Amino acid sequence: MTINITSGKSVGVVRTLGGELISYKNDGIEYVWQIDPMHWEGQAKILFPVCCSPKDGKMAHDGVEYPMVKHGFLHKREFEPILMSKSKVILEQRESEETLKMFPFCFSFKTEHTVTDNGFSTRFIIKNLDKNEMTFCVGGHPGFNCPLREEDGGFEDYSIYFDDAEGCTVSVCNKDGYMDASVPKLDRLKGTNELPLLYSDFDNDALVIENLPQKSARLISRKTGKGFRFTFNGFDVLGVWTPPKKNSPLVCFEPWNGLPADVSETTDAKSKKYAKTIAPDEEYVVEYSVELIK
To answer: Considering only CA atoms, which of 227, 247, 240 is closest in space to residue 155?
Structure first.
């Protein structure tokens, strides 16, 4: 099922399968990537309880290993609408017999999508309904058209601008999608806050940007100065991705709590960098948002 939400000239479409915002148009311009199997069949996946590839396809809790698929299981399951208004929708997913085989906890995962006159926001509200502590990773994987307009040029006519990139690091995943210290880091942000988009930087997989002083980035066409600001409150890391070696007209901004598996790590969930642990009845809330720059 799909649900439309509107505000002024903004129109969003939310799909209950996966709980994703699959379209956002403003003044008739589509910002969210629309599926093209030649490039990428995703749109805005919700990542839980793992971000990207788990080590050896497994995650361990209290010494017991459980099978886990890439990006987790939420994006393949139906969410239940629990609030629908003109500009906002809240969907929820709970544990099931199927999820308990992979993630041995009772939980509530709510996703809240809101459109405004000049953008949209997506919020994740995770509650531990289990009797034990719950350890997880959580993230977003929204894809955006790049370029957004014909006059904006092409993919490589865009740059990502940070308010402050001092002290951050830009790692490159290896060709298996794992973190790997043997892969040289990019030095493009040394002495600058601008990261020009270059297809060659993504020949392996995603770029992983850590230690950003401010959780905000702007995707801007250098030809027109148009684009949007992406803010990711509560997240530790920003991944940036486009399909390797496809010259695709899309870029994903991926806010994460948790990293792709490291070649040197174990399958233990609590050992994963940036993983979160919450007590019974505790909630954890994160949010990302888009503000248009016209």
So the answer is: 247
C-alpha span between 158 and 165 (Å, rounded): 17
Question: How many CB atoms lie under 10 A from the CB of residue 241?
Answer: 21
Neighbouring C-beta atoms of residue 13, cutoff 10 Å: 18
Burial class (CB in 10 A: 0-12, 13-18, 19+), 291: middle
Question: Judging by DSSP bridges, how do beta strands 207-210 and 169-172 pair with one another?
Answer: antiparallel
* pLDDT classification of 259: cutoffs 50, 70, 90: very high
Quote the pTM value. 0.96
**Bridge pairing between strands 10-15 and 20-26:** antiparallel
Q: Please give the Cα distance from 72 to 102 (Å, whole number).
A: 9
